[in-house]
Specification:
alpha+beta; Aminopeptidase; 4 strands; globular
Length: about 120
Amino acid sequence: MPHTRARFEEIEVPDAMPGFTIRRYEPGDEAKIVPLFNRVFSAGNPAFVPRTLEDWRWEFASNPEGIQVMVAVHDDTGEIAGHYAGIPRRMLCRGKVGIAAESVDSMVDRRFRAGLRRPDYSW
């Protein structure tokens, strides 16, 4: 039986958490996404190389297959609290070319992730 498929643009995003809006990327968000990326991925990594706006735009906004980025925006401050992205990739499956997404750069600002912290296992 064939699966029903929906284009990313057709998916309704539910109101998931009070105080946050989860939505698709909008032009200009990258100015807040890049600093978030640099804060999250530099923590505890002395070899970290900061990402630039140009890096982000090349990887996501300029992808000829489209952009697959969702953000969580803190309603009170307008800050990007979280980012979930996929890079569309052409693939060959059973003799047909399709597009799949490679999930990358999923992150949540540590100030907003208190409920996601790992439990302290002291064994």
